[in-house]
Amino acid sequence: MTTLELSGGHVLRPDLTVERADVLVDQSAGEVLEVGALAGTGDEMLDCSGSLVMPGLVNAHGHGAMTLLRGYADDKPLEAWLEEDIWPAEAELEAGDVGAGTRLAAVEMLRSGTTAFVDMYFQVDEVVDAVTEAGLRARVGHGVVTVGKDDEAARADFEESLAVAERHDGAADGRVRTAVMPHAPHTVGTEFFEAFVPRVHEAGIPLHFHLNETPAYLDPIEAEYGERPTVYADDLGLLGEDSWVAHGVHVDDSEIELLAETGTSVVHCPASNMKLASGMAPVQELLDAGVMVGLGTDGAASNNDLDLFDEMRDAAMVGKLAAEDASAVAAPDVVRMATEGSAAAAGLPVGRVEAGGVADFAVVDFEQPHLTPTHDFVSHLVYAARGSDVRHTICDGAVLVRDGTVTTLDEDAVRESASEHATALVDRAN
Ligand SMILES: CSC[C@H]1O[C@@H](n2cnc3c(O)ncnc32)[C@H](O)[C@@H]1O
Ligand SMILES: [Zn+2]
Questions:
Q1: Cβ-Cβ contacts under 8 Å for 410 (sequence gap 6 or more)
Q2: Does 50 lie in the same domain as 77?
């Protein structure tokens, strides 16, 4: 057994108290052995003085390779943005693009303290290779869209999502888990849900999809079935403890109750919701109803970054506006959303720093002017810290970022390759 000691820092405990402590990790098992006063007992030492050791952040909804389309199309609402710009560009995507874009996403996430993420996209073999190389943890899936496809192509798309989930589950020494990911209730035909959802359940595979992001998600379902999309999704077997949805912006009281009753988690994506003017999710109401809420960036083309510190601040700010209450979506709730909440939503065994727990951490440098004085660590994590304050990132016991430098990927090469792929992709699309 080789041990790593995170020494000299403060530690954010699961009850969100902070104490001066070291953390000893079994690197081969990727597990925390002890949290306490250790004073130099590790085989390898990682200096965390002046810093806070917290659980690695978990990005519970996104489309990693959309980094290639960052800044390609802005200042439009979701439907116009997807139909006029994003989907035509994605029609030109090649496997290598997804690999390059996901590596860029990995570098950005690692540098800002994210150790696990959820990815709904295409060419998932490439996504898995990038995750494996980066050393990250992920829940990945092939996104299914059947609108605009004939029956054969639509069925093939859903088959691909199932096959990908079965092929990759447990990859990268178990750091990669999978899910079947239909895009949304209104972009996948009812007959395909009816045919495939029972098979997904039989195979014990979780489900992840976009729900009620904009008013346009409601109209077609209400017009055809006379019910809210959450009820429609429940009728099709899409809700449950193994399901988590992205957005949940336009959910009424009965839908919130249904999400709580079925144990379906909601991933809040505040930056994307603000940028696309999709609306303000009723996060405090979801929390009050007992719904598990996680946090996600969505893709880098609608955010336009993958920094969960930024996202935490946005979640707190817009949560207060939505509730018209400055005490709503308070800092401790937001830190829980970005750690344990996201982890529970995505079914990943992370989100707490404790003995016997998984060794995934972000180490945040608090010796910064904008983090001085430190009356309250949790307040600073939400309202004042930035992704660039992350000093070290550790996943599964391995140091993936040491003093701001990614150890597993060559950052310059990743940036260069992503730029080349992005330019060629956009040239093909235009
Ligand atoms: C079928 S793979 C995922 C699919 O989703 C698209 N997408 C990106 N951002 C959003 C969003 O905010 N709402 C809905 N769909 C989104 C992405 O471009 C892919 O086509
Ligand atoms: Zn999305």
A1: none
A2: no
Could you tell me the CATH number of the domain that includes residue 294?
3.20.20.140
| Cβ neighbours of residue 164 closer than 8 Å, sequence gap 6 or more | 124, 125, 140, 141, 142, 178
To the question of whether residue 298 is assigned a binding role by annotation, the answer is yes
Ligand nearest to the CA of residue 78, numbered in listed order? 1
235 backbone φψ class: left, alpha, beta (φ>0; ψ -120 to 50): alpha
Q: Could you list which residues have their CB under 5 Å from ion ligand 2? A: 298
Rounded Cα gap, residues 293 and 265, in angstroms: 6
Stated pTM of the model: 0.98
Based on the structure, what is the number of domains in the chain? 2
Closest atom, ligand 1, to C-alpha of 86: 18
Give the span between the Cα atoms of 430 and 426, in whole angstroms. Answer: 6
Which value does ipTM take for this structure? 0.99
Domain interval for residue 169: 57-346
Cβ atoms < 10 Å from Cβ of 320: 17
213-240 as b/e, with b when 16 or more CB fall inside 10 Å?
bbeebbeebeeeeeebbbbbbbebebbe
Find the 87 Cα to ligand 1 centroid distance in Å.
9
Radius of gyration (Cα) for the chain, nearest Å? 21
Are residues 44 and 89 both part of a single domain? no
pLDDT digits (tens, 9 = 90+) for 16-53: 999 999 999 999 999 999 999 997 999 999 999 999 99
SS3 421: helix
Cα(342)–Cα(298) distance, rounded to whole angstroms? 13
